[in-house]
Amino acid sequence: MTDPEPERTPVLALEGVSKSFGAVRALRDVSLRLYAGEAHALAGENGAGKSTLIKALAGVHRPDSGTVLLDGAPVVFHGPADARDAGVAVIYQEPTLFPDLSVAENIFVGRQPRRSFGRVDHRAVKKATAALFARLGVDLDPEQPARGLSIADQQLVEIAKALSFDARVLIMDEPTAALTGREVARLFGVVRALREGGAAVLFISHRLEEVFALCQQVTTLRDGALIASESVAGLTEDDLVRRMVGRDLDELYPKQDAAIGDVALSVRRLTREGVFTDVSFEVRRGEIVGLAGLVGAGRSEVARAVFGVDRWDAGEVEIDGRPLKAGAPSLAMAAGLALVPEDRRAQGLVMDMSIERNINLTGLRTTARAGLMNRGAERSRAVDWAVRLQVKYARLADLVGTLSGGNQQKVVLAKWLATGPRVLIVDEPTRGIDVGTKAEVHRLLSQLAADGLAVLMISSDLPEILGMADRVLVMHEGRLTAEIDRSDATEESVMAAATGRGGSAA
Amino acid sequence: MTMTAEPTPATAPEAPSTTGVLDRVLKVRELAIAAVLVLMLTATQLDNSAFLSQQGIKDLLLNATILVLVAVGQAVVVITRNVDLSVGSVLGISAFAAGDLLHGGGNPVLAVLVAVALGAAFGVVNGLLVSLGQVPALVVTLGTLYIIRGLDSIWIGSRQITAADLPSGFTTFGHDGLGVVPYLALLTAVVLVAAAYFLRSYRSGRDLYALGSSPEAARLAGVPVRKRILGAYIVCGALAGLAGALYLARFGNVDSGTGNGYELTVVSAVVVGGVAFTGGSGSVYGAALGALLLTSINSVLPSIGVSSVWVQAIDGVLLLLAIAVDRVVALRVAGLLRKRAAQTRSAHHG
Q1: Which of residues 83-122 of A touch B (CB under 8 A)?
Q2: Sign of CA dihedral A344, A350, A355, A360
């Protein structure tokens, strides 16, 4: 709109595209132009239609109306292969790898270099993969199977896949959510090089500072409609947030002061061999304790062990002074512990079940009468919590998989809060969630703490830890390396402890 | 790319050992079956020195070849996270079709081709139903199993083909061979090697593993999912058809019950051979070894004086054992990978 290039033809563009899924209008008359050599950000809350827009560009969804333009000429992508052949590379939010295939095969599936008679040249596949990893500065073995890779490593493989064909258009949906600062910096280096080489880049991130660091243009969507498409220069983060949310954000980290009470969760010398060692801490009523550290430091594993998903080898866990048995989640739940897991799609929800059923999974006992489910009680329990947490849904019977990420997370929270816990462990509560919902989740956590709940919050989002936690615990390679009070916690002090060294902030 | 040139020195000695261990664990599956097979045959031979006579070896191979052939086709389908339960019915009906043609004085080569084509046609039906219908393959092919068996019964009635109806050249082909290796086994070996080479060295072959490993990822990666599934079913059907023709050549006797219940033996062979039922892993060599193992037990038990009523129970135990081994290996590999990842990471950050 504001950019002065009437003569330039966009490499890839959408003109007046609309797309509906049943009654939900995911995109309404949206236009987007991607130019060669330009990085374009796509901003918007979750559920604003960003993923649908990407899938329209990637040939996964065909628009109901409107056109996709390639080099100014209308095209119809019949599937992802068409888009790929046109030079469109996509990194999806959730890594989509083949667990049984090697990393190298994952990258080149369907596009393997070939020898005579169309045979796959396995050696060339491996070599090309090694070259890609060298370019990304990643030390993964090309022949290792994708199964067992951490989310960060999976994301790096996705990135290598996108780089592996000389893409004219590179689309990245939240590529940095699981990466460390160093990996992000390296990725951005590669993306800038690609852009300078003439590729068009479409970038989605909830970390606004990344948008400002990488992109020249930004298009904002809200509720499936185009709000603005403008130059990043001259825009502030607040401007962008206002466009996304449609209102001023009072505060992203609305931490309330709460009266800190008795010890609710006490973990002493907890050890799980090869995973974490000698971890001791306490969480008091009314307190939010942040657990920081790099990806793979063992934070989620501690949470899983405390809740009883994994066994611990030594140590003890007490809730309100009563010891918990190792490896018994149902006893932990009965004792008043709740865990909102890291991966809501795989661990937090049953994606093929309705919102109502998901919320009630934790309450099968309380809503049953004489062994039979009481449908009315189930329904009112689900409605109660869905409304309290302001989940945006059409009907409670809708599959939870059709909700946006932020609303899915609210359903997970609803499911656990409905059990009336004394201690709530939240693992990456706002990963992949838009700014608006993020603030809502923060307000909720703060409110819960004020009401006397003990909250342990694991997060890789440093501002979130600093903004929300009364006390910060830091883990490094399976050990607790620091306990920092809210007043002393800074990015530098937390990062120093997380990297196990002095002052090397990422 | 100038800014990304950061060397990664510490990993050089680490990498080969990772692949070495993993490779061994993954290949060990085929090796383990081969070892069990050799052990079993050796023990039987020690107990009964007549077991591995020239005719004994020939019989062993002859008995295995038809099952191996169908198992190869089944493995191709199972790799895509599907299954074809109709192979027994397809084998039966194509064996009769070939027999009927020969009975009327047809050309043996043409008869084999007709059997293959008929099998492939049923493969098309199965493939279309599974890939377009988005219905679980187990249910679809259970349906076609009964339908084809029904067609078979209606068409054949109480008729049967016996060796006397067949040209002598055809039955000779079914029994003779080069030395101890029957022609049928040679043919099967050629098919086996071709299938293995195709799966390993062609994009479409790799696609089968990819879509078995994660159908959703395959779709996003632009793998033509429906086309590949259809292809796998056609291969499976055609091989079941070919197996029908070879069955006719070997036994010379076909009626409406031929191949009844065969699908379960085939699926057992494939699973015992290490082709994961959840798709994406295993090889046709494994499936072939599994088939060889199962049929060898059939020959071994009588020759060491055990009643053959034990055969099915032993097959079942083998099946459970195979699945248990798969599970243990999977857990071990996962643990290994986790440890490696932790090491790499600490090398990274430390």
Answers
A1: 83-85, 90, 92, 96-101, 105, 109-112, 114, 118-120, 122
A2: negative
